[in-house]
Amino acid sequence: MTKVFTRPYSLKDVETHYCGGCGHGIVHRLIADAVDELGIRERVVGIAPVGCAVLAYDYFNFDVCEAAHGRAPAVATGMKRARPDLIIFAYQGDGDLAAIGMAEIIHAANRGENISVFFVNNAVYGMTGGQMAPTTMIGQKTETTPRGRLMEQEGSPIRVSELLAQFDGVKFVERCTITKPKNVNRTKAAITHALRMQIEGKGFGFVEILSPCPTYWGLQPRVAMKMIEERMIEVFPLGQLKDIEEKK
Amino acid sequence: MAEERIIIAGFGGQGIMFMGKLLCYAGMMEDRHVTYMPSYGAEVRGGTAYCNVIISSEEIPSPVVSDPTAAIIMNMPSLAKFEAAVVKKGLMVVNSSLVTRAAKRKDIELIPVPATSIADRLGNTRVANMVALGGFLAKRAVVDIATVTAAIQEILPASRSHLIEVNRQAIAEGKIYVEAHSSAAIWSKLTRGFGFA
Amino acid sequence: MSRKGLMCGNEAMAEAAITAGCRCYFGYPITPQNEVTAYMSRRMPEVGGQFVQSESEVAAINMVFGAAAIGARAFTSSSSPGISLMQEGISYLAGNELPSVIVNIMRGGPGLGNIGPSQADYFQATRGGGHGDYRTIVLAPASVQELADQMFLAFDLADKYRNPVMVIADGVLGQIVEPVEFSPKETANLPKKDWALTGCSGRAPNKIRSLVLGDNELLEHNRKLQAKYRAMEESEIRYESLETDGADIILVAYGSPSRTCRSLLKKYRQEGYRIGLFRPITLWPFPYKALAEAAHGSRMVLVVEMSAGQLVEDVRLALLNDSIIRLLGKPGGEVIQSHEVQSEIEKIIEEFKIKGR
User: Fold this and answer.
1) Residue C138 needs a FRET pair 20 to 30 A away by CA distance; which of A154, B143, B183, C209 works?
2) What is residue A158's DSSP assignment?
3) What residue segments make up the domains of chain C, in order of their start?
4) Which of B123, B111, B136, B116 lies closest to B19, judged by CA?
């Protein structure tokens, strides 16, 4: 009998702490798949954020580091500069990357650090209990926007991929989601592409993944997935925003 | 020589820091104990720039010069700022091309050197600092002039090596000027404008 | 061959770091330590190292964190306001036990303050300016040569204990130019960095994290850290005690004020007064016992510092007798002049009728 599906070696066989229907588990798996397929498990170093994925170092089966809230791109810079032969990726959520860590991500991107950043955007703060994120959508109710996010008061959701794509130092940007198999495959391809570009020394790669948070969206997992397709994609359009390799 | 504590002051761009560093480097080459402390920050960008140099035969405790035994004053504001600080019987070399007011102190040795004019005559107004340094060294031989010349070669970047000669010349001219004007008669004539005699 | 060169403290510190094998410098410009960023931007490429002008001190300390996590020798430098921004990172470095070196060329505060030389960050450095129960070894040089020498020591101590080490110096020491020699010393038996994140080739994955959620696990982690700090207190105390034997007055100072004090010893000795100088070289761990011994039998201990009174608190802890402690503290980024120290000494001489020869 042929084995058609197996746990990637780069993902530990442990139970995660993620809520039912959370997207983090899927994204972890896709990264682990990509690491296995690229054969880089023994020279990859991941950086876990502060946020729901803070315990990622317990799930990945390779070297992983903690970073202070928002500082993963600076930590990644230090690592990559010290050991360019290692493959460094930062795994960040929307609060970590787009609120407290906005300076670090913009400057690491603009310097064109040869690193990969995987940005899980679920439009809400999970770890602290469902507060507004920089990517929370207009009208979206959270713990700290009980009447729904108002543009006049809280500003509008930040489109990080569009923001970063404009920098010359950024070589690859794609926004994906994980709502259905086709999108999951697309996400895995984007993650793999970003890592491959780093391996080939081609520079900064960024993959934004729209991901569900059924718990703090107050929705059933299946409905949460539908929510991404019906509302989130409208605000955060899917697709490749930049790829220097395409020009060839 | 026990210890010479020197303040060098002027405006940004006059090569004040270079004078200090050069003196310090020459001292080091002669195995003296030396420290050099520049003023830093906003002051070095346009306003009064000054530095402290200590050259001593013994270990130097504090690099901060609050009671200078000698001062080289390159412009007017520096005279106002440091005149009072110089110790009694201390030395003050003044760039008389730019400092036109008389010094108030009567208890120090005042040596006016028209450093900027001499530098202009040498064809490079920027070596006024070296003229003044030459004048200073004529009165206080804290280091040998040959050592200072050698130090210039050490610390001037290669791209400026063509300036070594004019710097050397400027030091020599400053020294000659002070030595030539040291005879009493010329001296009294020269210092009249400074409120002396 | 080591040759004497003339360098300012900031440059000497940078070159010493390179001689100590540091190939990663991350920093943000701030007066009075700008010579470090300028020097490193020029020098690091020459030795195959890395210089990044970071977007902030927050980023700089986290770049140091990253480089330290993969096992490299890394350092950053700044001045007081920038060091405040680094406190989060220093807490993380301590919590994660990452060897690293942080230099603070102190200026006047609080707030933006001024750019004058200061020692007002003593509390911040010795008490741990960030959150949590942690300690950093704090070294305090008093000359350009010592600043260079202490960089070697700082990297070694950081590696030895897996801990951040701070070097703190007032702005005078960053700026003064003095002769300096670099003689790299052999580092003896430093532990292997088998904890570093170098890719899990031929070993189980390593993780570096300070989030410890299990029952009592953080308590255990803290106990381990505290045991390490006790070991530092046991082995790493450094100080200089000058003519303190039988002295009537003992001056206590570190950094450039200690040099002003030292210059007065000779003067008073010639007049027959017995005045000594105690200079802590490690501000943490502080030489409490050594100071208590040095001050035994003296009439008065005069603490001289460029702050409103921070070092004096450790002197109080050492002597447990406030009645023999005086403070000459000058905050605001101002240098303490020799005559100010003299006038304090004269007051004590008069008040206690201390006799010269």
Assistant:
1) C209
2) -
3) 5-183+209-235, 241-351
4) B136
Other CB atoms within 10 A of residue A52 CB: 27
Q: At what angle do helices C338-351 and C255-270 cross, to 10 degrees?
A: 50
Highest mean pLDDT among B5-9, B14-18, B190-194, C183-187: B5-9
CB atoms near residue C293 (< 10 Å): 14
> A62 lies in a domain?
yes
- Topology of domain C5-183+209-235, CATH: Rossmann fold (3.40.50)
H helix or E strand, kind and range, residue B69: none
Give the count of domains, chain A. Answer: 1
Whether the per-residue pLDDT at B185 is higher than 50: the answer is: no
3-state secondary structure (DSSP) of residue C23 = coil
Tell whether B36 is within 8 A of chain C (Cβ). yes
Q: What is the pLDDT of residues A79-107, one digit of tens each?
A: 999 999 999 999 999 999 999 999 999 99
* Residues of chain B positioned with their CB less than 8 A from the CB of C79: none
Asked: is B3-98+105-194 a CATH 1.20.1530.20 domain? The reply is no
Q: Do chains B and A touch (3 or more CB pairs under 8 A)?
A: no
Laid out side by side, the sheet with A204-210 consists of A239-243, A170-177, A204-210, A116-121, A87-93, A44-48, A63-66, C207-208
Residue C320, SS3 per DSSP? coil
Mean of pLDDT over chain B: 88
CATH of the domain at A242: 3.40.50.970
Interface probe for A, chosen from C65, C96, C195 (most Cβ of A below 10 Å), is C65
* Site of tokens 């490690």: C282
Q: What is the pLDDT of residues B28-68, one digit of tens each?
A: 999 999 999 988 654 445 567 899 999 999 888 888 888 99
Q: Is residue A154 part of a domain?
A: yes
On whether any CB of chain C is under 8 Å from the CB of A42, the answer is: yes
Q: Is 3.40.50.920 the CATH number for C241-351?
A: yes
Cβ atoms of C42 and C164 closer than 8 Å: no
Q: Do domains C5-183+209-235 and C241-351 have the same CATH topology?
A: yes
Residue span of the structural domain in which A152 resides: 24-247
The pLDDT tens digits for A157-208 are 999 999 999 999 999 999 999 999 999 999 999 999 999 999 999 999 999 9
Stated as kind and residue range, the H or E segment containing A107 is helix A102-111
Q: Residue C183's pLDDT band (boundaries 50, 70, 90)?
A: confident
Pairwise CA distance, residues C207 & C97, whole Å = 12
| Helix C87-95 × helix C57-69 angle, to 10° | 20
Chains near C (3 or more Cβ pairs under 8 Å): A, B
- CA closest to B63 among chain C residues: C176
pLDDT score of C85 more than 80: yes
Is there a domain that residue A17 lies in? no
Shortest alpha-carbon distance between residue A86 and chain C (Å): 7
